[in-house]
Amino acid sequence: MIDHLDGRLLELLALEPRIGILEASRRLGVARGTAQARLDRLQSNGVIRGFGPDVDPAAIGYPVTAFATLEIKQGQGASVRSHLAGVPEVLELHTTTGHGDMLCRLVARSNADLQRVIDRVVGFDGIVRASTAIVMENPVPLRIIPLVKQASED
Amino acid sequence: MIDHLDGRLLELLALEPRIGILEASRRLGVARGTAQARLDRLQSNGVIRGFGPDVDPAAIGYPVTAFATLEIKQGQGASVRSHLAGVPEVLELHTTTGHGDMLCRLVARSNADLQRVIDRVVGFDGIVRASTAIVMENPVPLRIIPLVKQASED
DNA sequence: TTTTCACTGGGCAATCTGTCCAGTGATAGG
DNA sequence: CCTATCACTGGACAGATTGCCCAGTGAAAA
């Protein structure tokens, strides 16, 4: 899927996102056009979805993170999805196999505020039950580089 | 924490990450120095952690995502953390309150490969039990803009 | 053998960046 | 009421980068 040069380019971009394509090509030891072409391909491939700013919720006043497992009333999936999509504190939502039916990541201004968020999340007809786990520590923040390295070495 | 101009700047950067600070200042209707200063402040504040490329695991050969809840043997937290940090397929790891002790996000090349990943994750002395939920759909991909809007309007 | 493809190395104009500066208006402290 | 501070404006400058073009080369595929 991606070769070693792609992997090194992704790693470079992840470590120093501010460098331009010219500087990247210098570091990779290839011509600018090559780096350019690789980056274009990675983007049109969908390997790189974008370069959006990585915003820290804690820094904008939402230091509390939690994961909620939701159990959904049969046939209510679609309405629950759109309900949750309308709650800003829901940062992501997955439908899953297993005990619950959905798993979502929440943030809140405080532990007390988390109660308000949860009430808003579960205060919806299609949701039968919710079980919440508050995040205390984040020993491994969302990362992709190790996986990219592995993928580019196969 | 952040005002309306910060919010609009973040939104702009999230929607069109490739625009430079000059174009951003034009769209926001402020002087370039102002946009520059705001961006610098957001970065030194830690509001913007970086601009790393958003890589899609599915596009590099890991289309299966799962969440695993782990139960840890007392006092083994540190060693489990470093064990999991060494597994490339572990994209993030949180310690939580609630039934489990840790929650991690995993990816794999296939459902069969997920078994290998899980074996590697739980094949470690400090881990007592693991319960895995495979992601089927992702109705709300990781997002931050709605929260930024809310935060900038208080 | 011929075609295709990725890469090299170069050049060009247009644009953007980093870095200054002086002037202005609002706010907070005295 | 006066003054210092701060954020913002609007402008300037040289240097770097970008988007785009080109011809030539080597390897792999047809």
General description of the model:
The structure is a homodimer. Chain A has about 150 residues and is α+β, with helices and mostly antiparallel strands. Chain A folds into 2 domains: about 5-55, Arc Repressor Mutant, subunit A (Orthogonal Bundle); about 55-135, Lrp/AsnC effector binding domain/regulation of amino acid metabolism (RAM) domain (Alpha-Beta Plaits). Helices cover about 40% and strands about 25% of the residues of chain A. The first copy, chain A, is built from 6 helices and 6 strands; from the N terminus they run αααβββαββαβα. Chain A has helices at about 5-15, 20-30, 30-45, 75-85, 110-120, 145-150, and strands at about 50, 55, 65-70, 90-95, 100-110, 125-140. A 4-stranded antiparallel β-sheet of chain A has the order 4-5-3-6. In chain A, a hairpin with a 5-residue loop joins β4 (about 90-95) and β5. The longest helix of chain A is centred in the first third of the chain and has 14 residues, at about 30-45. Chain A starts with a helix and ends with a helix. Chains A and B meet through α1, β1, β2, β3 and α4 of A and α1, β1, β2, β3 and α4 of B. β4 of chain A pairs antiparallel with β6 (about 125-140) of chain B. The structure holds a DNA duplex (30 and 30 nucleotides).
